[in-house]
Amino acid sequence: MKRYGLSLLPLGLGVALAALWQAGLWANPILYLRADLGTLLLLLGLLGSMSWGLGLALWALADRRREQALTRSRQEQADSHRRFIRRLDHELKNPLTAIRVGLANLADRGDGPTLTSVRAQVDRLARLSTDLRKLADLEAQPVEREPVDPGELLTQLLELVQERPEATIRHLRLSLPRAPWPLPPVAGDRDLLFLALHNLVDNALKFSRPDDTIEIRAFEDGSSVVIEVADTGPGIDGDELPHLGEELYRGSRASSVEGSGLGLALVQAIVARHQGTVAIRSRLGQGTVVALRLPVIR
Amino acid sequence: MMARGQGMDDHKRHQRVLLVDDEEAITALLAPFLERAGFAVAVATDGEAALRRVDDFNPDLIVLDVLMPRLNGREALRRLRRAENWTPVILLTRVGSPAERAMALEEGADDYLNKPFEPYELIARIRAVLRRAQRGGQPLAGARRLRSGTLELDRQARRATLTGRELPLTAKAFSVLEYLMLHPDEVLGRERLLDAVWGWDYPAATRAVDTRIAELRRTLNDDAESPRFIETVIGQGYRFIAPVEVGR
């Protein structure tokens, strides 16, 4: 709105000056300006271009301001969310500690099965609150930036998951480029990246069925390394896709599968700390592919 | 059932634990729990009260909560150490960033435990710290340098040397070695090491610990089959088996 107001400024100035001279304070001579049509058109064109350019510059400036305000408010939102999670975690710790000690005190008095199941639930609560806080911490802490070889990382990951019983009844494959050159290193915290990739493969194993195929593949794309974990599992509903990275979000099909609802949120937090991106594509009945894009060390 | 210790040792007194926490729900439940485990327990509800109780109760060990009104645990610990009092202290922390934990150890805590802890874990830690303290010598926790045979660790400079030669260790491997040496002869689970050094303990990441241990063994030239320093305890974790003392 202010922008349009400003455009009236020259007009206002003109009116004011006209009023001054019309009032007769000074002589108000009549000027005859003569110009040929060519010059006049040239001047008009120049004037037009100048005002157009000025308009565009003002517009861009306002755009940038708006974007900055948006980023700031998003940042503030994220910060306040983090603070909330820390406070929640903090407030839960003392009661959870007291409950655990209380349960240990009860342990001598019998009813083992009940105690065991209550203890399991307390553990679950404690784990949840700790995991939420760690996630919030991760978004704020600096991460290590050492060269990490993605090929070696994925090979080690495959070794680890192949030991799992679910993996033996699915077709698990890893494909890495060797020609014309192997994958370049990315900068980051090896253990965190391992954790992120492990979560993706873990999801693929959990949400697919026996005999499904899971492919882990990586390739270089411009100045990034792209790592994809793809499965021929049941797929995810399009409506649910945007919510997958949210904390504690569990897809409608996930309720039968054990999990905290924090796995993908953790992946996104880790990848974001490495200046990377996560993209998910999925088709119901066909499967899902999650792609991590991480910048290569220059 | 309780055939522990030196058999007929009649005048062997119960070891005294001073429990300091402002949360009554915790002290009221934890004190009897520790008593049943064989300790004599006194309770204080803030740092100032704790410092007063140290003089008249004369505890063998203090379990100290960090966040308390009036005088918090960290400051109480600092004052205790400034007064040259080396009673072993286990800090109960709530905000567990790795930097914060490292600080806890540097300020002279003998160990720390994150809330909400498993009460049996607390007992195991208390016993481990008391065992270390009984062996005598200056406590390791506040020491700037640690030494085990020809292996020396400068905790401030973050450097390790073996027979005078500097070891090329990554920052993580150094921290793992430091934590192992601060808890000699104690079996340390992978998850505990992850929690202490990495700051998170997702089970999927326990391999990260094995990787660093392998790095340490390589640089220390330590054979996993017949180790001089780091022993693998199958199904449980790792243990630093060589004696550790405060270095000059």
Written overview of the protein:
- The complex is a heterodimer of chains A (298) and B (248).
- Chain A contains 8 helices and 7 strands.
- The mean pLDDT of chain A is 88.
- In chain A, a hairpin with a 3-residue loop joins strand 6 and strand 7.
- Among the domains of chain A are: 57 residues, no CATH class; 150 residues, Heat Shock Protein 90, CATH 3.30.565.10.
- Chain A is elongated, with a radius of gyration of 31 Å.
- With 298 residues, chain A is an alpha+beta fold.
- Chain B is an alpha/beta fold.
- Chain B folds into 2 domains: 120 residues, Response regulator (Rossmann fold, 3-Layer(aba) Sandwich), CATH 3.40.50; 102 residues, Winged helix-like DNA-binding domain superfamily/Winged helix DNA-binding domain (Arc Repressor Mutant, subunit A), CATH 1.10.10.10.
- Chain B is 38% helix and 20% strand.
- Chain B starts with 14 loop residues before the first strand and ends with a strand.
- At the A-B interface, helix 3, helix 4 and helix 7 of A face helix 1 of B.
